Request: fold
Amino acid sequence: MRIGRTIGCVTLTEAHPTMKGGLLRLVVPLRAEDLDNEDGPTEAIIAWDELGAGNGQLIAFSEGGEAAQPFQPEGKPIDAYISALIDQIDRPKPTES
Reply:
C-alpha cells in the first residue's frame, strides 16, 4: 500500500460493465519527503475510487494484482485502487545533524 494525493477525475463515455458504482481518479504517488507539498515528483496514475475522494485528498492505494483482490470473484479491470481516505499522518520531523 502506498500514499498519494488525488489531483483530478477521469471521465469515461463507455466502460466495462463492472466499472459501475465508482470513479477513476488521477493520483500522484507521494514519498515521505513529499507529504508536506501539494504533489509529488512522479507521474500521476489512475486509481479506482468507491470511497468518494475529493481533489487534493490524501489517500492510501494499492497497485497491481492486489488492487483487484477486493472485487473477487467478479473482478474489475483496474491496476490501482483507493483503499482509504487519510485524515492525518503523524510522523516525526527529521532532525538536522
Observations:
- The chain has one helix and five strands.
- The beta strands are 2-10, 23-29, 45-49, 58-63, 80-85.
- The chain has one domain: 2-85.
- The mean pLDDT is 81.
